[in-house]
């Protein structure tokens, strides 16, 4: 199983949804960084379950503990181990589903691949696994902000068929995003989204949505063509998040309908450097960052675990009716916002360290 990500800033996540704890080991964090649990907890609070009526009813404080890698509040350059305890575990909720693979979930594929699986809560396929990612991403984001003033902001841009007005990617802040329960900065659209999710939670159904993200102040030159282009690594990172089904950068699929004369980004002079008048490239050209904001969109499917009865078959092929009893999100996108930000931070920091290593080799 692959639970590792990154080249120089490397993370290895561990844990299942109903085991004793989940977490991450970070290797490659530079020494001397001021770091305490408080620097990480804010993002975990945005990801945790039970934070609003729109999410799962599972109650977890998700308090992070730094086990190693720091002393007197500063990183040592050694591996940083971060752990979060699972406290509100209810594996008995999944007893009736032990022999029935849940439709569109990972039960069947994990069982066929490994010959065994965690039968409660989806195991490593559960979004609970993303705690380690978010914790590591908070560390990466802190480094990026302090060293390069890189800012990463994600928000919900659609739920089901409800779209929000385009946010200003130059100015949008996490404060604006968190002003609504659904994490959509468009107040009018947010109310409609929240009503839809509330109604679906009452009847036991679910809905998907789209999370948009902007990464500002990215240095020019990040990315490793050909096979580790910056957009390719971002796509890998985003599609590794549970429930993702689509990825776009810049103009995305809409760009395929345009003429080159309309799609191209002309160069202009900006604050003593070359920049682009438009940003349909999404901040990346030739797989390398060009200094413009990097803009992403990630599509999330409706959560597979629903409590409505579903006709299916068990592992023996016998007909069965399944109605999930476990707690689940009717829509994952509000809690996916900090996960998207975390994955973006991990990619950008790793690419930044790789570029800085190249400079060190050139000028030593």
What does this protein look like?
The chain is of the alpha+beta class. It has a single domain (4-363), classed as Chorismate synthase AroC (Chorismate synthase, AroC fold, 4-Layer Sandwich), CATH 3.60.150. 29% of the residues lie in helices and 22% in strands. The protein has eight helices and 18 strands. Strands 1-2-3-7-4 form a five-stranded antiparallel sheet, covered by helices on one side. Strands 9-8-10-16-11 form a five-stranded antiparallel sheet. The protein has a two-stranded antiparallel sheet with strand order 5-6. α1 crosses α3, α1 packs across α8 (333-363) and α6 (230-239) packs antiparallel against α8. The longest helix is centred in the last third of the chain and has 31 residues, at 333-363. The radius of gyration is 21 Å and the shape is globular. The relative contact order is 0.17. The mean pLDDT is 93.
Offer a few descriptive terms.
364 residues; alpha+beta; 5-stranded antiparallel beta sheet; Chorismate synthase, AroC fold
CATH level 3 topology: Chorismate synthase, AroC fold
**Which of globular, elongated, flat, extended, rod-shaped describes the shape?**
globular
Give the C-level CATH assignment.
Alpha Beta
Beta strand %: 15-25%
Radius of gyration: 21 Å
What is the N-to-C succession of helices and strands? EEEHEEEEHHEEHHEHEHEEEEEEEH
DSSP summary: helix tally: 8
Instruction: State the major sheet.
Output: 5 strands, antiparallel
pLDDT averaged residue by residue: 93
Tell me the count of domains: 1
Biggest sheet strand order reads 1-2-3-7-4
């Amino acid at each position: 199983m692959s639970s590792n990500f990154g080249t120089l800033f490397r993370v290895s996540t561990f844990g299942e949804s109903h085991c004793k704890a989940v977490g991450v080991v970070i290797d490659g964090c530079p020494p001397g960084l001021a770091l305490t649990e408080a620097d990480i907890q804010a993002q975990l609070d945005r990801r945790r379950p039970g934070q609003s009526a729109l999410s799962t009813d599972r109650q977890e404080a998700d308090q992070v503990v730094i086990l190693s890698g720091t002393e007197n509040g500063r990183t040592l350059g050694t591996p940083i181990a971060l752990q979060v305890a699972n406290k509100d575990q209810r594996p008995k909720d999944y007893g009736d589903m032990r022999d029935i693979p849940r439709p569109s979930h990972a039960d069947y594929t994990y069982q066929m691949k490994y010959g065994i699986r965690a039968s409660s809560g989806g195991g490593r396929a559960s979004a609970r696994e993303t705690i380690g990612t978010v914790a590591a991403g908070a560390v990466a984001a802190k480094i990026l902000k302090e060293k390069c003033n890189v800012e990463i902001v994600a928000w919900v841009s659609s739920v089901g068929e409800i779209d929000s007005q385009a946010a200003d990617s130059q100015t949008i802040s996490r404060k604006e995003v968190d002003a609504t329960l659904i994490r959509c900065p468009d107040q009018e659209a947010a109310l409609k989204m929240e009503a839809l999710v509330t109604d679906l939670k009452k009847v036991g159904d679910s809905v998907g949505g789209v999370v948009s993200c902007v990464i500002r102040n990215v240095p020019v030159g990040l990315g490793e063509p050909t096979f580790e282009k910056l957009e390719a690594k971002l796509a890998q990172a985003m599609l590794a998040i549970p429930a993702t089904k689509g990825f776009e950068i810049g103009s995305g699929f809409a760009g395929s309908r345009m003429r080159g004369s309309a799609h191209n980004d002309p160069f202009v002079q900006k604050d003593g450097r070359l920049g682009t008048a438009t940003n349909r490239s999404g901040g990346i050209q030739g797989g390398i960052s060009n200094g413009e904001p990097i803009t992403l969109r990630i599509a999330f499917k409706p959560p597979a675990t629903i409590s409505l009865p579903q006709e299916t078959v068990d592992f023996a092929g016998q007909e069965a009716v399944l109605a999930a009893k476990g707690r689940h999100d009717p829509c994952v996108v509000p809690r996916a916002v900090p996960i998207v930000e975390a994955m973006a931070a991990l990619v950008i920091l790793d690419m930044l360290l790789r570029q800085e290593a190249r400079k060190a080799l050139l000028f030593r």
